[in-house]
Please model this.
Amino acid sequence: MMDSRVLYTLLIAIFAVERLWEVRLSLANARRALAEGGKEYGKGHYPVMVVLHTLFLIACPLEVWLLDRGFTPWPGWLMLAVSLLTQGLRYWVITTLGWRWNTRVIIVPGLPLVAAGPFRWLRHPNYVAVCLELLALPLVHGAWMTALVFTVANALLLRVRIGVENRALGYSDAQAGG
Model:
């Protein structure tokens, strides 16, 4: 039987390949948004976000291998299910936004806010998916330190990111929740 750490590393590799696909789609969508007259906001925090997400995908298997984290079925399978559900939410967001989805904050003047799909209930559903993923994916194989460190780092980054996005979308502080 294959070592569970190898299987976990393959799972992370699958998530990494999926992220590369997202980056490619994001670049194409960002080019279109800019061509449609879009304006980018928050360029300063974007490289930090890229580094954070890249290091996350490295840290997950690294902790498992270096600290010999084992797979525990009950939390492992539950966290795998949560991780897969986050992908469903992410694709729902991508599908709902269409060409307007990208990993940057680019606002095309004159376009109405999207109020369909998960945006009917959540202002930032993709960030919910990211938060859950950063918590759940490491816990699939007991990498609790990675889950803790990257969840906290992401929360700090999202405070900046969501503020930038809310201001770019024209939400008042009261509408933005503070």
About this structure: The first helix runs from residue 4 to 35. Residues 60 and 120 are 33 Å apart (CA to CA).
